[in-house]
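REQUEST FORM: STRUCTURE PREDICTION
Request ID: SP-0412
Submitted by: Lab K.M.
Chain count: 1
Length (residues): 350
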Amino acid sequence: MKSAAALILLAGCAVIHPAEIRLTKATTPSLEFGPQPASPAASIIVSRDAYLMGTRVHLAVHVDDRESGLLTLESALAALEQTEDELSNWRRSSEISMLNREPLHHRRALAARLCLALKDVWQWQRESGAAFDPAIGQLLEAWKVHGAGAIPSPATLAAALASSGIAQFDFDPRGCTISRRSDVILDTGAFGKGEALDRAAAVLGTAPWIIDLGGQVSVGGNTPRGDGWTIPVAEPHRRDVPALRVRLTHGSLATSAGSERDLLVGGKRVGHIIDPRTGYPASFDGSVTVWHERGLVADILSTALYVMGPEPGLRWAEERRLAACYLIPEGSTLRVAATAAFHRLLSEQG
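STATUS: Completed
RESULT:
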């Protein structure tokens, strides 16, 4: 892993160095990500906002003139839109939706870029011991995660679990073909945004840029002052309150948290992040933030580590030298626990 220009500050306090820190929960102003003030001679910042992949996207780039900036951002938006056309679970015409409707045992040829993305998906599913497995559409339906929520009966849950998991697909990464062995549904919610950010990054060139796609942020280049882009990481239960601030010059920062989209059914919490191993919503109630050079991998890892939970997740990430940080609610405080790789990112900037 290359070093990242990353500096994480406690809200108004100090640089994180110890393995664990406790933050007192206190309301602080909501912040938008953005660069540090540039010198008068620096390039201008051009930005665009759009709604893609079911969420808000904000793009910004440092350029010499507004026209070139708009053209640059237009190319990035086109890459994001193309990814949505391919990966959207909501568009019947997308390649993923057509795959999910493919007759059983019928082999489907995959587009080259989707084939490459699925190779990573399959790899991290194995590596994570199935804590990450996006073939959970039947489980999401059983819990009505995209609706009002539901508590499935044991029989309903067992049937959904039996039709879940990427083992229900026959994927040939060399020939780039795939078929379904059961009525399994691949859901792109845990890797689609990361893949879209990587495709946008590939067309943005060397000009300093930043994209916030529904809370996952990718950056490239360096700002004119050389101090990167500042990104807030929210408290798990108050998405408008930053607990940490992260400064990046490259790579992607992805956060998984349960509270914002969780549902209450009969007084019971139904989390929107499902543990593919058990079929039940993940029990962790905090958040985990992951930095990686690739948006796809950061997206995948934040989901896997959320499902694992802090203690096993930190051990797993530490063994693989991954940069991950948990925010763990404990009464009136947040416990901050991070891997050595995450701390190295901080010290290399210090």
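NOTES: Residues 66-87 form the longest helix (22 residues).
Reviewed by: T.R.
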